[in-house]
Amino acid sequence: MTLKYSLKTAIMGLRINKMRSILTILGIVIGITSIILIMSLGKGAQNLILSQLQIFGSKMIAIVPGREPKGFTDMIGMIAANSLREKDLESLEKKSNVPYARRIMPVVFGSETIAFENETYRATILGTAEFFAEVYDFFPKEGRVFTNEEVKGHADVMVIGNRVKEELFGGQEAIGQKVKIKGQNFKIIGILAKKGQSSFINFDEVAFIPYTTAQQYIFGIKYFNRLAVEVDSEENVSRTVEDIKITLRNNHNITDPDKDDFFVETQAAAMNSVKSITNVFALFLAAVAAISLIVGGIGIMNIMLVSVTERTREIGLRKALGATQKNILTQFLLESITLTGIGGIIGILLGNFFAFLVSFVLGRIVGLGWGLTFSPLAMILGLGISAIIGLTFGFYPARQAAKKSPMEALRYE
C-alpha cells in the first residue's frame, strides 16, 4: 500500500465524521492562534519600544541616580534617589573630566496642576536646559523656547504641549498669557505642535520650564532626576561612559564600583535590555498558550482511540484483505497529522488576522504608532508543533489499531 493511498484513506476516514474532526482540531486552532498572536504582538511591542528609545539617538547617555535596579525594591529606591547634584553637573561639564561630552542636559520632573483663570489641568512638568527641543527634535509651532540666560536667571517662562493649551485656553491665544503653578506665575512663551506619545513621554501633556526654576519654585529640590549627556560621536560613547563613572565616583568618594549611587545607560544597552525582556516575556506567554496545544493533543488522542474502537471491524476487514500492521499504523498516524496540520494552518491564518486587527486598532485608532509584524518563526513553530503533536498523540491510538487481530476484529460487534 503506497503512502498516497494511505493518505487518501485517512482523509476519507476523517470526512466520514466531519463534525467530530472539526471539534477535534478546535484545541489545536486555539493554541496555534494564541501563539501566533502573542509572538506577533510581542514583536510589535518590541519594535515600538525600540523606536521610542531611538528618538534620542545613539550618542545620548543617561545618568540615573541610585543603584542600578535589580528588583522591585531597587526600583523604589531609584525613584527616591538624590545623588546627582549641581557639583556633579559642574564636574561633568569640565572638558578635562569628560572630553568627548558635547553638552549635558539636567532633567527634573513631576506632575503638578496648572491653572489659568477658572481652568485647571494636571500636566507633567519637565525642568530642562534651553536646548531640550534639539535633543528631542521637537520644536514649538508657535513662540519660542527659553534661553540659557533664562535658565541661569530662574525665569518663570513655560513651553506647553498641544493638549495643555487646549485644556487651559481652548481657542484663545496662549502666547503671552500667564498661568499659575503652586502660586507661582509663569508666562507662556511657546506651544508645541501635536505629537502624542514618544519615548515614554506624551509631549501633548507636558510643560517645559527651566530646570533651575523647577528646582527652586516647583519641586523644592537641589538635585536632578536625570542627567542626559550628548557625546560628540558614536565612537566615543564607551570612553565617555567610563569618564562619567570616574568623575562621579571621585565626587562621591566611591572606591568600590559595587557601591555606586548612580548608574549609566547608553541607548544601545537600553535597547538590548528591552529586547531581552520582551523576548523572554513573549516566550513565556507563548509557553502558557502552548498548554492549550497539549490539551488539544490529548483531545486528539481520545478521539482517535474512540475512532479505533468504532472502526474495529473496518480494521479487521482491511487486515483480512492483506493490509499490514505498518499500513494500519500509517493510516491512523496520517489521520492524526492531518487533523493537527489543518488546525495549525487555520490557527496561523486566524493568529495573523487577529494580530492585524489589534495592530490596526492600536496604530490607527489609539494612535500608538504600532506597526503590524508578521513572525515567520511563529508560523514555522506553529506548523512544526502541530506535526509533533499529531505524531506524539496519534502514535498510541495508531499502534493500538495496528495491533488488533484480524479475526477478533471481524467478530467485534
Itemize the secondary structure elements and their pairings.
Elements: H1 3-16, H2 18-53, E1 60-65, H3 72-79, H4 86-93, E2 101-116, E3 119-128, H5 132-136, E4 140-143, H6 148-152, E5 157-160, H7 162-169, E6 178-181, E7 184-192, E8 197-198, E9 201-202, E10 206-210, H8 211-219, E11 226-231, H9 237-251, E12 262-266, H10 267-310, H11 312-320, H12 325-365, H13 376-403, H14 406-411
Parallel strand pairs: 3-10, 5-7
Antiparallel strand pairs: 1-11, 1-12, 2-3, 2-11, 4-7, 5-10, 6-7, 8-9
Helix pairs in contact: 1-12, 2-10, 2-12, 2-13, 4-9, 10-12, 10-13, 12-13
In short:
The protein has helices at 3-16, 18-53, 72-79, 86-93, 132-136, 148-152, 162-169, 211-219, 237-251, 267-310, 312-320, 325-365, 376-403, 406-411, and strands at residues 60-65, 101-116, 119-128, 140-143, 157-160, 178-181, 184-192, 197-198, 201-202, 206-210, 226-231, 262-266. It folds into 2 domains: 3-52 and 272-411, no CATH class; 82-260, no CATH class. α2 (18-53) packs antiparallel against α10 and α2 runs antiparallel to α13.
